[in-house]
Design goal:
By secondary structure, this protein is mainly alpha-helical. Helices cover about 60% and strands about 5% of the residues. The chain has 6 helices and 2 strands; from the N terminus they run ααααααββ. The chain has a two-stranded antiparallel sheet. Helix 2 runs antiparallel to helix 3 (about 40-45).
Length: about 160
């Protein structure tokens, strides 16, 4: 996929984030309106802290018309969240190395396979015991009702 198509996902996620934040601000304004707190409701209606990035965080993200400049927003998101090439903290580097080494050394020994076998065997034995205790192991009678023989007598099998 071209690099430009990869920019669509973070921008979509950013739009969803802003939509949810604005929705929460609107609900807060409605709540305060119902509580007859007009000043608080007005504050929430005009609350610009709901959108990201704030004007003071990224001045270039806004156009002169007051709309978003998506290229500048993408650059801001990239600078803020994807810091490739930046020096990683040594503690984080140690943690990443440890996790990588521990994933490579995962093995299931003979004990794990024996434990799994014992668990399966115990489950099988328990199932057989329950069947025997409930009486479901007995075969059902082939003839549930007696039949009459040719001489009119009831014959039981």
């Amino acid at each position: 996929a071209p690099a430009t198509s990869w920019a669509e996902f973070p921008l979509w996620l950013w739009e969803v984030h802003n939509d949810v934040s604005r929705s929460k601000a609107e609900r807060a304004a409605d709540f305060h309106e119902r509580q007859n707190r007009k000043a608080e409701a007005k504050k929430w209606e005009r609350y610009m802290g709901a959108v990201y990035p704030h004007l003071d965080q990224c001045l270039s993200c806004w156009t002169a018309e007051g709309t978003w400049d998506l290229g500048a927003v993408y650059n801001h998101l990239e600078k803020e969240y994807w810091t490739f090439g930046v020096v990683v903290d040594s503690k984080m580097e140690t943690l990443l190395d440890y996790k990588e080494a521990s994933v490579d050394n995962v093995s299931f020994g003979l004990g794990a396979y024996l434990g799994l076998g014992v668990a399966i065997l115990l489950t099988y034995i328990r199932k057989k015991y329950k069947i025997r205790a409930s009486g479901r192991h007995k075969k059902e009678d082939e003839n549930l009702f007696p039949s009459r023989s040719g001489d009119g007598k009831i014959k039981y099998r």
